[in-house]
Specification:
This protein has 199 residues and is mainly α. 80% of the residues lie in helices and 5% in strands.
């Protein structure tokens, strides 16, 4: 049971699951906003434009009646009639286009951020290459041959990479230790709660 809850906790706290949940919630809220916009603002405007173009001679200005139903006074009963609601159809198209436009803008922004990150990495890489060339030049100025200077710089780079890897490994080990301590504390707390409930 403990392993199950630990695995479940790891699953729900993963970054991509949380991001996906936030995306679904925000997407649902945005869809509700767009639907309200189309239903309450754009659809009446679309119906009004159709009404202006077709004229006001009949109810077919906004609807195409397929099977009209009238009451005893001759008034059209839309609830019982079969008709095509052009405003609703055009509103759905506008709804789709608005959501597609917003998604396009979000994807475009994310792509630009990704490109910016890649350009920063390339800039760092080219900066490191320039620094390497500068070090080689300095060592050659101190009387080393080009081969000796290149070898010395490569040794320094390997040593720096090893130092960085060791630091990252130490950091990961520390994070793992803290996580284990936290899990142990949580387990101890659950056991204390269980013991209290038993009493």
């Amino acid at each position: 049971m403990k392993a199950f809850f630990a695995e479940f906790k790891k699953f729900i706290t993963r970054g991509n699951v949380v991001d996906m949940s936030v995306g679904v919630i925000v997407g649902g809220a945005f869809t509700a906003i767009v639907t309200a916009l189309t239903e309450n603002i754009l659809r009446p405007l679309i119906n009004w434009v159709i009404f202006l173009f077709v004229g006001d001679t009949a109810s077919g200005t906004v609807y195409t009646l397929l099977k009209p139903v009238y009451d005893a006074d001759g008034n059209l009963l839309l609830d019982s009639s079969i008709y095509i609601d052009w405003g609703a159809f055009l509103g759905a198209i506008v709804n789709f286009l608005l959501i597609a436009l917003v998604l396009f803008m979000i994807v475009r922004m994310l792509n630009r951020l990704a490109k910016a990150g890649e350009s920063v990495k390339e800039g760092v890489k080219s900066g490191m290459e320039a620094e390497r060339r500068e070090k080689i030049k300095n060592y050659m100025g101190q009387g080393m041959t080009r081969r000796e200077a290149v070898k010395r710089v490569e040794e320094e780079i390997r040593a720096e990479d090893a130092r960085r890897a060791a630091a990252e490994k130490e950091k990961a080990a520390e994070e793992k230790r803290l996580q284990e301590e936290k899990q142990t504390a949580n387990t101890r707390l659950l056991e204390e709660i269980r013991d209290l409930l038993k009493k």
